[in-house]
């Protein structure tokens, strides 16, 4: 890190020494029913775990001693998450251990679920511990909201509290942070994520790995327009916090069956790696499940929000096996050992390989962080005052969107190419 960058980061930390008590910035209310798990159809090894050879990876590391913060919809206590602690609640009064949406619990299970004699389900880093910070919920809204309670897209989760949650996770001693949420805007819009960027800079200065979902294509939202396959072509959709690479490790989704890019994964030059995001098995209060109950039937678990925790868990495995590595070196190892990509807007350098990440001998001359994907700068324009939304990046929650204090801008001219 250059001296000027170090000085700027020290000043940033001095101005913002830590996150305040976790609480919503304004009064909220629950307006929708909580999510319900579908009947479990889980048998055998989860396809994603099999694809990544987690059994092989666990011969080298199980994530012992590593703390992973899950900034999400909360995590419900579960016998298979014995180290779970609450880190705060920015949605309602609580400690982060309430999950009306079930999304955060599913994510936490992918990262850290302990094995059970009853089945073959196990998390990527089963001896790591989870810190749960509830930052969003599709079942809540601000009391001042004028949204129709029946409208798809109502929910709660401002970018301001995402920034606060990131700082809180750092203050609580997280070694790895997982964020499975995405806000999308048309290219050329004002993004309004400076507070999130500042919080990520603090996380980097405190040596924390931050893994985020790339986002999903979703009709009826600003994530509806796909970006080009080629990373050098101008994008039409900007996603945050994924776009803030290299401060984050942005994760796309692949098919669990063969590792090819999932059709719904949002492309972008900021995508660094990918992980399984279909045929997902997650942890619910009743045990491992493959779907949630939706208004029109069961909805299979799928999305980049379930790909990201595979990578967060891999980071936990590495931090446990190689405690002397910096966060940048951990990320470098994940990217350098991924395979099947190269420079791809859907999967970045390719699908993660936990076994290779734990065993590869990287060149001693490699500069830490040299493989990280840096997203091109995006133009900004003036603000016209309308609200944007933040999506939980899991297709099982496709009807659940979370309000974000983003404002769109009028498109002015052509989006410049990434190399400008």
From TrEMBL:
The keyword Transport appears for this protein: no
One example of a Gene Ontology biological process annotation: proteolysis
Molecular functions per Gene Ontology: serine-type endopeptidase activity
NCBIfam families membership: T7SS_mycosin
Lineage of the species this protein comes from: Bacteria, Bacillati, Actinomycetota, Actinomycetes, Mycobacteriales
InterPro entries referenced in this protein's UniProt entry, alphabetically: Peptidase_S8/S53_dom (IPR000209), Peptidase_S8/S53_dom_sf (IPR036852), Peptidase_S8_Asp-AS (IPR023827), Peptidase_S8_His-AS (IPR022398), Peptidase_S8_Ser-AS (IPR023828), Peptidase_S8_subtilisin-like (IPR050131), Peptidase_S8_subtilisin-rel (IPR015500), T7SS_pept_S8A_mycosin (IPR023834)
Keyword terms, alphabetized: Cell membrane, Hydrolase, Membrane, Protease, Serine protease, Signal, Transmembrane, Transmembrane helix
Compartmental location: Cell membrane
Keyword flag Mitochondrion: no
Protein name listed in UniProt: Type VII secretion-associated serine protease
Domain (Peptidase S8/S53) ranges: 63-350
Pfam families in the cross-refs: Peptidase_S8
Catalytic site positions: 72 (charge relay system), 103 (charge relay system), 305 (charge relay system)
Gene Ontology CC annotations of this record: plasma membrane
